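Please decode residue identities from the backbone states below.
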């Protein structure tokens, strides 16, 4: 069993009910990320969405460049970037430069996306994004391996494409996300690991064993977007529920747009009272968190657990809860 590390997802949102000038909001989040490195956290992850009224981060590579400049040791990456919205040659080139700036600390989480509106805004055929993603992954991984790529298909046409300078390690680790059955096959073929839910993590490990691959040294990463550790869960619920309700309801609205991710486990919009009673916001004591995480480690080769900084929460209050986690949970996994 490898060492388990921890990090946070930062979506850089600025909801109207807690709005600040954008430069101030971005600056305080960058300050928080720099603090997490000093506190011993191992990762900072930037997701991607578009057309969001609260300004959900639409440009993770730009944000990651700023984070690379503010940090020295932690792993940084997307969690998750929407691959079909990028030209694969441009993406491979930008990531290579970013990995150089970060000193080889970049790891990218990728998926196909589930919102038709986002695909339409970028001129991408939503119904073909899975097939596009497979070709996209082939192109990007070949470019990172310093190949000169000629490629012609329905979706991509390139001649003499090459990334220079190449990424320092000759490869940038890819953690693929998703919920559909094809996700596991895609990870096995192109990915260095899975990023997402416990259920798919287990399916991925089972698939590796079925293929005779080394499942014990596989890497899976769980996103605990609505998981918090606190000494007083009742007081934490009272303080944090409004911020995490915004997270829940915005995702819930997106999941319901096209019913693409309506699998019975998706978030659904709620009132504050419904949300508090739903169990969606999981507030654990330090001892309960340690037990939960050790149980996950026993089920799968979990190497990193991601929580989130909810939009609007004052930076000093985020630091308060993150510091509790750092001091009372992380030592059990040192």
């Amino acid at each position: 069993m490898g060492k388990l590390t921890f990090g946070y997802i930062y979506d850089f949102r600025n909801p109207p009910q807690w709005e600040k000038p954008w430069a101030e909001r971005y600056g305080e989040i960058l300050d928080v990320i720099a603090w997490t490195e000093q506190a011993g956290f191992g990762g900072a992850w930037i997701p991607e969405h578009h057309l969001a009224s609260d300004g959900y981060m639409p440009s993770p590579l730009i944000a990651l460049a700023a984070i690379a400049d503010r940090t020295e040791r932690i792993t940084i990456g997307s969690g998750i970037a929407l691959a079909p919205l990028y030209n694969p040659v441009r993406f491979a080139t930008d990531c290579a430069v970013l990995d150089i700036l970060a000193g080889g600390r970049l790891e990218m989480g990728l998926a196909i996306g589930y919102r038709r509106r986002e695909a339409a805004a970028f001129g991408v055929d939503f119904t073909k994004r899975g097939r596009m993603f497979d070709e996209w992954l082939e192109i990007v991984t070949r470019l990172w391996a310093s190949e000169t790529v000629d490629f012609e298909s329905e979706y991509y046409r390139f001649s003499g494409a090459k990334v220079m300078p190449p990424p320092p390690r000759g490869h940038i680790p890819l953690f693929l996300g998703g919920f559909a059955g094809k996700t596991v096959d895609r990870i096995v073929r192109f990915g260095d690991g899975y990023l997402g839910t416990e259920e798919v993590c287990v399916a991925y490990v089972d698939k590796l064993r079925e293929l005779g691959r080394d499942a014990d040294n596989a890497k899976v990463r769980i996103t605990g977007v609505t998981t918090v550790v606190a000494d007083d869960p009742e007081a934490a619920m009272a303080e944090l529920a409004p911020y995490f309700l915004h997270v829940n309801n915005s995702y819930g609205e997106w999941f319901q747009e096209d019913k693409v991710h309506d699998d019975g486990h998706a978030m659904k919009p709620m009132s504050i009272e419904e949300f508090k009673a739903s169990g969606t916001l999981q507030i654990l004591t330090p001892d309960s968190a340690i037990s939960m995480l050790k149980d996950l480690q026993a089920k799968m080769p979990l190497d990193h657990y991601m929580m989130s900084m909810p939009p609007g929460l004052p930076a000093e209050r985020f630091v308060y809860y993150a510091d509790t986690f750092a001091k009372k949970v992380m030592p059990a996994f040192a």
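Observation: The chain has one domain: 5-333.
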